[in-house]
Structures are given as structure tokens and as C-alpha cells.
Design brief:
This protein is an alpha/beta fold. The strands form 3 sheets. Strands 2-1-9-10 form a 4-stranded parallel β-sheet, sandwiched between helices. Strands 4-5-3-6 form a 4-stranded antiparallel β-sheet. A hairpin with a 2-residue loop joins strand 4 and strand 5. The radius of gyration is 19 Å and the shape is globular. Its EC number is 2.3.1.39. It catalyses: holo-[ACP] + malonyl-CoA = malonyl-[ACP] + CoA. Keywords: Acyltransferase, Transferase. It comes from Planomicrobium stackebrandtii.
Length: 312
């Protein structure tokens, strides 16, 4: 029986200076970096290869940079004969999944995520919104906490349901700080503030979502050739109109990552290939279900290892 494979893509926070560099000896791979520079009219590739890290981490640079590296590595995997049965990405990573599934072409996608970063950056005053990871509290209990704090202190809501015992909350600085205090009182093991520039995946991103909706309405999306498991629904989607609507909702809705992984496992996926810098998603997948295989691919060495592993 054929092994079912999912290609999964990391989001912001995974970017590092030098990512993807080991692939650039290959002419076709190098064209992704050149295409990103040309599409955006900035030296994104120089920033990716030389830094500084603080500049690369700015949301409107990190988003196109991660999409570029993930799309480049995907092309190498497909050239090696490895193809996905499903794709999914965490937040920004969903756009890399959409390129793989032929919903968006790469130059269009790199432009959209650059603008998405700009919209997110200006949606809420810098320093007034934030996020935090809450460890060891069930989502139902944590949602009670965020609802209470929203009523008394400031907007805060569940933003990323990553894996059992790890949920990220997002909202106003006051709301998130108070929710961290209350969550620990209710039994959370830890509350860890995250170094982010805004309250992503919360209602405070509504204005960014309206700007994104206008941008997407002028872009040409195709039906997915490979089903994409949506952050918003945790279901495999193929219809271009539905996907476009979900991308707008994604900005202010929680990322249902744990449910998305479980959905892919229910659909028969036994191998998850994480494509892009780092191994964060591979770690989350293992916490969701230890029985599946994870193969992070982030440089030529890990690429060759994955090809070898899948040839067995």
C-alpha cells in the first residue's frame, strides 16, 4: 500500500539568517531567491543570507523569506520524486502549502505574504498587542479564562492550538498579561510571553484581514491539485473560492494545528515532511501522535536523508 505523505510548512519564528543557503549551488533552486527579489523589488535574498537577524525577523520580511525557502525545498523534493497527498502550513506556512498545491503561483504568493506582513504590522499599534504560550491547561478551561479576562481587562483569545498542553493566546498586552496570571491560578504549568510584534490570530487583526481580502480579490487562485488542510477548519480544502475566504478569516481566527494533524492522520497520512528552517512542527506532530514518522527538511543533508528514508 502506498505511503501517504503530508508536506507541512512552518510559520513566523522559524526564520534564521543563512536558511536555504546549502541549496543555492543548484541553478533551479537559486531561481527562487532571484524571483523573490525581482517580485518584491528588494534584496530579500541578501537579507536571508547575510542578515541582520532583527531585519529578517520583521514580519514583512520574514513572511516572504520563509515562503521562498519552503517553496525552493519543495521543488527539490518533487524533482526527487517525492510528492504530497496533503499539504498544510502553520499560519504563514499555509501560503507555502498553497504554492505546493498549485492554488497560487510563487511570484503571486511572495507578493501577497509581503503585503500580508505589512497589513499585520500596521493593524494594531506596535507594543500594545502581544501573545503568550500557555502550557498544561486544556483549551476549554483556557477559553473560560480568556473570556473572563476579555470582559474585565482587555481582549485576549486562543490563537494557536498547537498540541496537547500547548496553546498560544493573543490580544492586548493587558489582556494577555492578566490571562497568564489567571491561567496559572487555574492550573497552567507555565505561561511564556512570546517575542512577537502584534496580536496575531485575534480579533485585533480584523483591519488587516480587510486589507488582505482586497489584495486576494485581485489575485488569481486556482482549485487545489493537492488538498490543503486549512488552519481555520482543520479540513482538507480544494475549492479556490473557499480557500480565499479562509485565508481572510485565518488572520483573526485560531490556528487549529492539533486538529489539522489529527485530520491528516485520519485521512491515512503516516509521514509528515516539514519543509523549511527548524523542526518545530515535527516536534508538535510527535506530541500529537508518536506513531507517525516526521522528516524535517531544511538543508541539503536533511533533504538527502529524507530521500534515502523514503526510498526504503
Amino acid at each position: 500500500m502506498k505511503t501517504k505523505i503530508a508536506f507541512i510548512y512552518p510559520g513566523q519564528g522559524s526564520q534564521t539568517v543563512g536558511m536555504g543557503e546549502s541549496f543555492l549551488a543548484d541553478d533551479t533552486s537559486r531561481k527562487f531567491f532571484e524571483s523573490a527579489d525581482q517580485s518584491l523589488g528588494i534584496e530579500l535574498s541578501k537579507l536571508m543570507l547575510e542578515g541582520p537577524q532583527e531585519e529578517l525577523t520583521l514580519t514583512y520580511h520574514a513572511q516572504p523569506a520563509l515562503l521562498t525557502v519552503s517553496s525552493m525545498i519543495t521543488e527539490r523534493l518533487i524533482r526527487a520524486g517525492i510528492r504530497p497527498d496533503y499539504t498544510a502550513g502553520h499560519s504563514l506556512g499555509e501560503y507555502s502549502a498553497l504554492v505546493t498545491s498549485n492554488v497560487l503561483d510563487f511570484p503571486t504568493a511572495v507578493n501577497i505574504v509581503h503585503k500580508r506582513g505589512l497589513f499585520m504590522n500596521t493593524a494594531f499599534p506596535a507594543g500594545e498587542g502581544t501573545m503568550a504560550a500557555i502550557l498544561g491547561l486544556e483549551s476549554e478551561e483556557l477559553e473560560k479564562v480568556t473570556n473572563e479576562v476579555t470582559d474585565t481587562t482587555g481582549v485576549v483569545q486562543l490563537a494557536n492550538l498547537n498540541c496537547p498542553g500547548q496553546i498560544v493566546i493573543s490580544g492586548t498586552k493587558a489582556g494577555v498579561e492578566q490571562a497568564c496570571v489567571v491561567a496559572k491560578e487555574r492550573g497552567a504549568k507555565r505561561a511564556i510571553p512570546l517575542d512577537v510584534s502584534g496580536p496575531f490570530h485575534s480579533e485585533l487583526m480584523r483591519s488587516a484581514s480587510q486589507d488582505l481580502a482586497k489584495e486576494l480579490s485581485t489575485s488569481f487562485l486556482l482549485d487545489a491539485k493537492v488538498p490543503v488542510v486549512s488552519n481555520v477548519t482543520a479540513k482538507a480544502e480544494t475549492n479556490a473560492t473557499q480557500i480565499q475566504d479562509l485565508l481572510v478569516r485565518q488572520l483573526y481566527s485560531p490556528v487549529l494545528w492539533e486538529q489539522s494533524v489529527r485530520e491528516m492522520i485520519d485521512l491515512g497520512v503516516t509521514v509528515f515532511i516539514e519543509i523549511g528552517p527548524g523542526k518545530v512542527l515535527s516536534g508538535l506532530v510527535k506530541k500529537i501522535d508518536r506513531s507517525v514518522k516526521t522528516l524535517p527538511v531544511y538543508d541539503v543533508e536533511s533533504f538527502e536523508k529524507a530521500v534515502e528514508e523514503l526510498a526504503k
